[in-house]
Amino acid sequence: MSVRSAQAQAAIIARTTGTPARGPAKEEVRKEPAKPGTGKSSSSPGAASSKSAGGSKGAGAKGLQNQDGMESGGAVGAQAGGSAGLPDKREPQGRGRFDLLQGESTHSKAHPQGTPARESASAVAPELPREKKAEDRERSNTARQALEGRAKLQAALAQRIQAGMLDVLGRLTKFLKSPGRLGVVNLTLVLSESAITYELWKEPSSVPARRERMAQTLGVSPAADDATLLKELMGIVHQSFVDYQASRPGRETRAQYEQVLQAYDKVGVLPIVPGHDTGPMMTELAQLKMGHEESFSRSLLVDPLLLAVGLNPDEGSDTQVMIAGLTVAQLGTLVAHMRRLNPRLTNKQVRQILLNASTDLKTMGRKNLGNFEVEQVQHMARQLLKLQAVEQLYV
Question: Which residues lie within the region annotated Disordered (predicted)?
Answer without folding.
Answer: 1-143
